[in-house]
């Protein structure tokens, strides 16, 4: 060995001769490309990335999630990372229990309620369709109403009575004209068929006056049937079921008559009818007749009576609603709103009455954060749906549709709301995880509200979702490729030189790596075998 040689070659190592790297071939190929190729390449890349960005944005707006992220989590991650072993009985039981618990919680949070102040289809919803050409009710909402009608107005013994048998089929019909035709057939069989008059009042009457006439006929027939079934209710389970059905019909008719009186301006008469109905059937509080009463009392400006109703129904043990919470806030705001000034309050601080009003507003906003945007007319109102989701956008639309006028009537109430409502969100920075006065805000409201509200309405979402990473990524990619395409189109020769320079630099680095790779591998082998000599 030579004197200056520092390493001894290890026998048995297969030395490979250095070869000319393939990267130089790539460089030669790139050098032959024309400027038109680079223009076409960057333009095509910009177009493809733009289409991906548009699709990703549309998918997020419609479904609230990133398409790329969803595909990655649902399909690619199981293939790459594999699935965990959950075959043990304990793991299976835990997973099943967790899914059942989540399902039960989701069902309780997303329970849909019938709108206590729902409009009349023939006299109000249909007139809107005639004027605008838009359908204010969704198929899902109308299907829920059909289920309600079958629950309220039918029973097992309907098949015995021909008129009730016809009406039983009528409530299942999807076509409004077929339902109306069936109602007339039922009246031909029995002129005292109360449910037939109810259907005609709801769907055929084109004015509130006509609807009231039908309901009065339904009330006359319903009271007669109710008295008869009341005497026979204890004879058999079938008679008891018929009595419950007749009770439902009578309560429904009286309530709608009270609502007709309210719409026709006979407000005191409507209040009396509602109070009598609540006294006669106290166990039917689940129908939320007190919300109809609250709205009528606010129209009369009988605020002391409103406070008395709230004292009974705004209880910790009773379910809350936007009508309860926001009416309580309105009464507290009424006491201070006429002299409230943000500048004065910032100098001297809030008085006790003002603190109570602000806390009541924060409580109402925490229960339903969508309402203020409608009361402050930051969002346009639509006709309320026949069913609402408590704490959701559908409930906010229904509340604001009927109560906006009451807030406007009290001087300064909307100004106080405008100055204070956003302060609620500082107390609940993570509303889906932890609430302040109520349970955490349910995460399922957006999906349910999209089913209840028409497509032309922009559904309010709370809390606002942050844009997914892949939307930012595709937006950046689209902008970058568009900039490259523009520069390549404007300065083709310069961009070709730049592209070739980048390719040559990258090729040179790859060449150096290929040159050093055999030496590094031999050095590691010598070091591992312990034959390194100095």
From TrEMBL:
Source organism of the structure: Podarcis muralis (Wall lizard)
One term under GO cellular component: membrane
Keywords: Membrane, Transmembrane, Transmembrane helix
Protein name: Suppressor of tumorigenicity 7 protein-like
Membrane spanning stretches: 37-60
Localization (cell): Membrane
Protein family according to the UniProt entry: Belongs to the ST7 family.
Keyword Transmembrane assigned: yes
Membrane association type: Multi-pass membrane protein
Pfam families assigned to the protein according to its UniProt record, in alphabetical order: ST7 (PF04184)
């Amino acid at each position: 060995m030579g004197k200056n040689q520092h390493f001894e070659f290890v026998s048995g190592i297969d030395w490979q001769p250095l070869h000319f790297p393939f990267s130089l071939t790539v460089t030669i190929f790139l050098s032959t490309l024309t400027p038109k190729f680079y223009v076409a390449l960057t333009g095509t890349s910009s177009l493809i990335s733009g289409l991906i960005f548009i699709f990703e944005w549309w998918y997020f707006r419609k479904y609230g999630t990133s398409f790329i992220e969803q595909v990655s989590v649902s399909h690619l991650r199981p293939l790459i990372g594999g699935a965990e072993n959950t075959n043990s009985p304990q793991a299976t039981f835990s997973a099943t229990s967790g899914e059942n618990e989540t399902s039960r919680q989701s069902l309780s949070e997303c329970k849909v309620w019938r709108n206590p102040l729902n409009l009349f289809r023939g006299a109000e919803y249909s007139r809107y369709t005639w004027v605008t050409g838009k359908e204010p009710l969704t198929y899902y909402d109308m299907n829920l109403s059909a289920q309600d009608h079958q629950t309220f107005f039918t029973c097992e013994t309907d098949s015995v009575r021909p008129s009730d048998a016809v009406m039983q089929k009528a409530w299942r019909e999807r076509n409004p004209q077929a339902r109306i035709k069936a109602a007339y057939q039922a009246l031909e069989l029995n002129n005292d068929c109360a449910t037939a008059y109810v259907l005609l009042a709801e769907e055929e009457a084109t004015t509130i006056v006509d609807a009231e006439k039908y309901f009065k006929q339904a009330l006359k027939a319903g009271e007669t049937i109710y008295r008869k079934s009341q005497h026979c209710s204890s004879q058999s389970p079938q008679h008891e079921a018929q009595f419950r059905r007749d009770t439902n019909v009578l309560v429904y008719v009286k309530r709608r008559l009270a609502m007709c009186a309210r719409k026709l301006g006979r407000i005191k008469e409507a209040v009396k009818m509602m109070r009598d109905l609540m006294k006669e059937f106290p166990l039917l509080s689940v129908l939320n007749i007190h919300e109809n009463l609250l709205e009528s009392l606010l129209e009369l400006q009988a605020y002391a009576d409103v406070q008395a109703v709230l004292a009974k129904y705004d209880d910790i043990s009773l379910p809350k609603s936007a009508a309860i919470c926001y009416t309580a806030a309105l009464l507290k705001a009424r006491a201070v709103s006429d002299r409230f000034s943000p500048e004065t309050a910032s100098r001297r601080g809030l008085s006790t009455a003002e603190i109570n009003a602000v806390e009541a507003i924060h409580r109402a906003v925490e229960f339903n954060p969508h309402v203020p945007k409608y009361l402050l007319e930051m969002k346009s109102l639509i006709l309320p749906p026949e069913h609402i989701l408590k704490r959701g956008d559908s409930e906010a639309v229904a509340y604001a549709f009927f109560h906006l006028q009451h807030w406007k009537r009290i001087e300064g109430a909307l100004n106080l709301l405008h100055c204070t409502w956003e302060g609620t969100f500082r107390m609940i920075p993570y509303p889906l995880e932890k609430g302040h006065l109520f349970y955490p805000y349910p995460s399922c409201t957006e999906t349910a509200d999209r089913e209840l509200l028409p497509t032309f309405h922009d559904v309010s979402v709370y809390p606002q979702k942050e844009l997914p990473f892949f939307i930012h990524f595709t937006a950046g990619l689209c902008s970058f490729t568009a900039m490259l395409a523009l520069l390549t189109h404007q300065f083709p020769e310069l961009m070709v030189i730049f592209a070739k320079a980048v390719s040559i630099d990258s090729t040179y680095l790859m060449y150096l790596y290929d040159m050093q790779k055999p030496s590094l591998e031999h050095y590691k082998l010598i070091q591992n075998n312990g034959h390194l000599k100095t």
